[in-house]
C-alpha cells in the first residue's frame, strides 16, 4: 500500500508542474538546452521512422510527436499525464493538422493498446518522473504493445550528471549532497534553461544506470541496447558559446534504443 501513496504523490506534483507550465513548453523550433543536446539525437535513434505506428509516451505539448509525423510515421499517438500539456498539443494539431492523436493518460497503463500493435515507442524525458517500480510497470507495458522486432527509444537525464556539477545555469537537478546509491527513488527539483534566458522547471526521480537496465530486463527486453551518452558538441559551442560552454565535457543525457 505504501507504493500506492508514492505513486499518487509524485503523479500529483508532476501533473501540477506541467499543467502550470504547459504554455512555456510550446515551441516549433529548438529553444531549450535539451532541444539541442538531446532531442535531435533521440530522433536519429528512432530512424527509420517512415510508415511506423508510433506511440510517444510523455509527449508533452507534442514537439517530438510532430517531428515523428513529419518524418513520415504512419501514425503517431501521444499520451501525457498533464491535461494542460495535452490541451497545448491538441491546440497545435487543430491549428496545423498533421494527423496526430493525443490523449491524457498514465504511461504505466497502456490497456487501450492490443498486444503487438505498435512498431516504435518513444519516451523523451518521461522516466525522470517515474519511480523504479513505475518504470518497470511502464516498460512491461511497452514490451507488450510492441510487435516482435519493434523498437523502444527513450532519453533520460544521465544518472551521474546531477552528482558531477553544482546546481547552476544552464541545467541542473538539485540533489542533496552526494548519494548516488542512497538517493534512489528520491525526487529532486531541477531547472533547464532556454537560449532566450528563460527556464523550465523540471524534476528528477533519481535512478541509477543499473536501475534502468534492470527495469528493461525485468520488463522482458533481452536484446543488446544501443546507448548514446549525449553531450555538448563543438557545433553547439560554435552556435552559442555562453550557453553551451558551461556544460562542456559533461555527460548530460542518455539515449537508448532497444528492440523487442
Ligand atoms: C520533460 S517533459 C518532456 C515532454 C516531451 N516528451 C518533450 O520532449 O518535449 C516530461 C513529460 O512527461 C509527462 N509525464 C510525467 N509523468 C507521466 C506519466 N506517468 N504518464 C504520462 N506522462 C507523464 C509530463 O506531464 C511531461 O509532459
Keywords:
single chain; 260 residues; alpha/beta; Rossmann fold; 7-stranded mixed beta sheet; 3-stranded antiparallel beta sheet; 9 helices; 10 strands; globular; disordered N terminus; binds S-adenosylmethionine
Describe this structure in words.
This protein is of the alpha/beta class. It has one domain (2-259): 3-Layer(aba) Sandwich (Rossmann fold), CATH 3.40.50. The protein is 36% helix and 24% strand. The protein contains nine helices and ten strands. It has helices spanning 2-25, 33-37, 39-46, 63-70, 83-95, 132-145, 209-219, 234-239, 241-244; strands spanning 53-57, 75-80, 101-104, 118-124, 146-157, 171-173, 187-193, 199-205, 226-230, 253-259. The strands form two sheets. It has a seven-stranded mixed sheet. A three-stranded antiparallel sheet has the order 6-7-8. Strand 2 (75-80), helix 5 and strand 3 form a beta-alpha-beta unit. Helix 1 (2-25) packs parallel to helix 5 and helix 6 runs parallel beside helix 7. The protein is globular, with a radius of gyration of 17 Å. The two termini are 32 Å apart. The relative contact order is 0.16. Mean pLDDT is 95; it is low at 1-8. Bound molecules: S-adenosylmethionine. Residues 11, 14, 18, 58-60, 63-64, 79-82, 85, 106-107, 124-126, 129-130, 202 line the site of S-adenosylmethionine.
Amino acid at each position: 500500500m505504501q507504493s500506492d501513496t508514492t505513486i499518487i504523490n509524485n503523479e500529483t506534483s508532476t501533473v501540477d508542474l506541467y499543467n502550470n507550465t504547459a504554455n512555456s513548453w510550446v515551441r516549433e523550433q529548438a529553444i531549450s538546452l535539451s532541444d539541442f543536446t538531446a532531442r535531435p539525437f533521440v530522433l536519429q535513434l528512432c530512424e527509420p521512422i517512415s510508415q511506423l505506428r508510433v506511440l510517444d509516451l510523455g509527449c508533452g505539448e507534442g514537439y517530438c510527436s510532430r517531428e515523428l509525423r513529419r518524418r513520415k510515421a504512419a501514425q503517431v499517438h501521444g499520451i501525457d499525464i498533464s491535461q494542460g500539456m495535452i490541451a497545448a498539443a491538441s491546440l497545435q494539431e487543430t491549428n496545423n493538422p498533421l494527423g496526430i492523436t493525443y490523449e491524457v493518460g498514465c504511461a504505466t497503463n497502456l490497456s487501450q493498446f492490443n498486444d503487438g500493435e505498435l512498431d516504435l515507442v518513444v519516451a523523451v524525458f518521461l522516466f525522470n518522473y517515474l519511480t523504479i517500480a513505475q518504470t518497470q510497470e511502464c516498460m512491461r507495458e511497452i514490451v507488450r504493445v510492441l510487435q516482435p522486432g519493434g523498437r523502444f527509444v527513450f532519453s533520460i537525464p544521465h544518472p551521474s550528471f546531477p552528482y558531477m556539477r553544482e546546481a547552476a545555469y544552464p541545467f541542473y537537478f538539485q540533489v542533496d549532497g552526494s548519494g548516488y546509491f542512497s538517493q534512489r527513488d528520491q525526487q529532486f527539483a531541477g531547472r533547464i534553461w532556454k537560449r532566450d534566458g528563460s527556464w523550465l522547471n523540471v524534476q528528477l526521480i533519481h535512478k541509477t544506470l543499473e536501475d534502468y537496465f534492470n527495469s528493461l530486463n525485468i520488463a522482458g527486453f533481452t536484446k543488446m541496447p544501443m546507448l548514446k551518452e549525449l553531450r555538448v558538441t563543438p557545433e553547439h559551442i560554435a552556435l552559442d558559446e555562453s550557453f553551451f560552454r558551461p556544460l562542456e565535457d559533461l555527460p548530460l543525457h542518455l539515449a537508448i534504443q532497444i528492440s523487442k
